[in-house]
Structure formats: C-alpha cells, structure tokens
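User: My collaborator sent over this chain with a note saying "see what the structure looks like." That's all I know about it. Can you take a look?
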Amino acid sequence: AMQLGAERRPARRPTYARFFEAGLSPMKQALATRDTKNALAAYDAMTAGCVTCHGEEKVEFMPVYFRPGVP
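Assistant: Without extra context I'll predict from the sequence alone. Here is the result:
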C-alpha cells in the first residue's frame, strides 16, 4: 500500500524513501535475526518513524499501537 502511495503522490516520495530505508529496512533485518529484543527495538523505531512521517506530511492521525510501557 505504501509503495502505491509513493507512486500516486510523487511529491511525497522523499518522505516515503526515508521511511522505507530508516524504518522498514531495519525492521526486516531485525526480524531476520529472530531475536526478540532486536525486533522489539526495531518495531519501536519503526512506529516512531510512522508518526514522524505523518507529521511531516501533515496527514491526519493514524493509529499506531505502541507496546505497553513504551512512551
């Protein structure tokens, strides 16, 4: 869905590219290690990236489910 969004909204491609590289790529790498601690840290960073990206693009709120105990 996000790749289609990048195609449909070319002005947002730089923001999408940053998120894909800084958010999704580390998440995929962490999952590949099968290490829970690394995966949870990558998840926290990725969800923070979601919020940052939406703020930069002035996109309305979207739900992000943080883990309990994570600010």
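A starting point for your reply to your collaborator: The helical segments are 2-8, 13-33, 36-56.
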